[in-house]
Write a structure and sequence with these properties.
Elements lengths: L3 E7 L12 E7 L8 E9 L3 H5 L20 E8 L12 E4 L6 E4 L5 E2 L16 H14 L6 E5 L4 H12 L3 E6 L2 H9 L5 E4 L5 H8 L4 E6 L3 H8 L2 E9 L18 H5 L3 E4 L9 H13 L7 E5 L4 H9 L6 E5 L3
Parallel strand pairs: 8-9, 8-11, 9-10, 11-12, 12-13, 14-15
Antiparallel strand pairs: 1-2, 3-4, 3-6, 3-15, 4-5, 5-7
Helix pairs in contact: 2-3, 2-8
Bound molecules: NADP nicotinamide-adenine-dinucleotide phosphate.
C-alpha cells in the first residue's frame, strides 16, 4: 500500500491570470479507509476550465476551493483496498471514476464512485469523450439546441474536449459543422481527423472574413465555449431563430475587465434563443448520453486526442497552459503507472 498521498493545494487566489504560484504540491500520509469505504489510487486527473472559477472568491453556481485545500477535480483510478460491504459492487482492481481532486489517493463510499469498464474504452476517456465533457456536448447540442439536418452548427474551442465532440455529433445529425480554434494545427485536426466541414483560426488577421466564407448560409446553432470577440463575431452571422447553447466563456475566466458584446442586438432582431446551461443540472440525461457516446466510441465514430501532463507536480503548469490554448484535445494528468 502507498505510504504517502501527493496533493496539489490552492495556495493563493489569482487576480487576473492564474499562475503556477497559485498552487502548492505537498506529500501527506496516505489515507486509510473506514468501515464502508474504499481506498482508490488515482491514475488520471482531468483538468477543466471550470476549475479557474473554483479558485476565485466570486459568487458562482458551485462552492469555491478553500485556501490550503486540495483543488477539486474528476479522477479515474483503481480500487486498492475495500472495506465496503460485499454487495457494494466494488472490489480491489476495479476501475472507478471519482471526484477526488488533485491528489494521488482518496477514500470514498462506493455510492460516490462510478465503476467503469476499461476493456473497450481506455480509462482516461471516462474523463473526456465518455465523461463530463462528452455529456456536456450531447446535452448542449442535442437536447438544448436541437439541430436539424442541413443546419449550420458552429462551435468554438473546436479541437478541445467538449468542442471536438460537438462537431462530430453535429455531423452525425447531418449538419454542416464549422469549428473555431486557435492556430492552423488545431484547425487542420478538426477538419482532417474529426470530420468538421471547415474550421476557422480565431487568431488569423482575417478571422471574420474566414468565418463568413465558412458559413455561407449563416449560423443556425452556436455552441458557445469561448465568449469575447469570437462570440461577438458569431452573433453577427446568426440566422433568424438561431439557437445559442451558452456552455462556457473561457476567454473571460482570467479577465479583470469583462468584454463588452457589441452585437447583442442580433439576438433580438433574429429572435434568437440563448440558453446558458451547466451539465450537472441535467443528471437525468447522463445515462443516455454516456451510453450513446460509449457506443459511438466502440463503433469508431467518435475520435479524440489527449494532451498529457506527467505527474501531479506538472498539473499547475498544464492547467495554465490549457487556459492559454496550449492543449490539443482533452487535457489530462497521468498520476501513476
Ligand atoms: N456548462 C457546462 O456544464 C460545461 C461543462 C464542461 C465545459 N464547459 C466549458 O466548455 C468550454 C470548453 O471546455 P473544454 O474542457 O473542452 O476545454 P478545452 O477546449 O479542451 O480547452 C480550453 C480551450 O479554450 C480555448 N481558449 C482559451 N482562451 C481563448 C480565447 N481567448 N479565445 C478563444 N479560445 C480560447 C483554447 O482553444 P483554442 O486554442 O482553440 O482557442 C483552449 O484550448 C469551456 O468554456 C468550459 O468552461 C462547460
Amino acid at each position: 500500500m502507498p505510504r504517502s498521498n501527493t496533493q496539489v493545494l490552492l495556495a493563493a487566489r489569482p487576480t487576473g491570470w492564474v499562475t503556477e504560484e497559485c498552487f502548492r504540491v505537498v506529500e501527506i500520509d496516505a489515507p486509510t479507509p473506514n468501515d464502508g469505504e474504499v481506498l482508490v489510487e488515482n491514475r488520471w486527473l482531468s483538468l477543466d476550465p471550470y476549475m479557474r472559477g473554483r479558485m476565485s472568491d466570486a459568487k458562482s453556481y458551485a462552492a469555491k476551493v478553500e485556501l490550503g485545500a486540495p483543488m477539486v477535480g474528476s479522477t479515474v483510478g483503481v480500487v486498492l483496498e475495500s472495506r465496503a460491504p460485499a454487495g457494494s459492487g466494488l472490489a480491489p482492481g476495479d476501475w472507478v471514476v471519482g471526484a477526488f481532486g488533485w491528489q494521488s489517493l482518496g477514500v470514498a463510499k462506493p455510492g460516490a464512485l462510478r465503476k467503469v469498464d476499461v476493456t473497450r474504452v481506455p480509462p482516461q476517456a471516462y474523463l473526456g469523450v465518455v465523461g463530463m465533457p462528452g455529456v456536456t456536448a450531447f446535452v448542449g447540442l442535442y437536447d438544448l439546441a436541437e439541430p436539424k439536418e442541413g443546419e449550420t452548427v458552429i462551435v468554438s474551442a473546436a479541437s478541445g474536449a467538449v468542442g471536438g465532440v460537438v462537431g462530430q455529433l453535429a455531423k452525425l445529425r447531418g449538419c454542416r459543422a464549422v469549428g473555431i480554434a486557435g492556430g492552423r494545427e488545431k484547425c487542420d485536426y478538426a477538419v482532417r481527423e474529426l470530420g468538421f466541414d471547415a474550421c476557422v483560426d480565431h487568431r488569423a488577421p482575417d478571422f471574420e472574413a474566414q468565418l463568413a466564407a465558412a458559413t455561407p448560409s449563416g449560423i443556425d446553432v452556436d455552441f458557445e465555449n469561448v465568449g469575447g470577440p469570437v462570440m461577438d463575431a458569431i452573433f453577427r452571422r446568426l440566422n433568424p431563430f438561431a439557437r445559442v447553447s451558452l456552455c462556457g466563456l473561457v476567454s473571460q475566466y482570467n479577465a479583470t475587465t469583462p468584454y463588452g458584446v457589441t452585437n447583442f442586438h442580433q439576438l433580438l432582431v433574429n429572435r434568437v434563443q440563448l440558453q446558458g446551461f451547466i451539465v450537472s443540472d441535467h443528471l437525468d440525461r447522463w445515462p443516455e448520453a454516456l451510453a450513446t457516446l460509449g457506443r459511438l466510441v466502440v463503433e469508431g465514430k467518435l475520435k479524440w486526442r489527449e494532451s498529457i501532463a506527467e505527474g501531479l507536480a506538472a498539473a499547475p503548469r498544464a492547467f495554465v497552459g490549457m487556459l492559454r490554448g496550449e492543449n490539443l484535445g482533452k487535457q489530462l494528468v497521468r498520476i501513476g503507472a
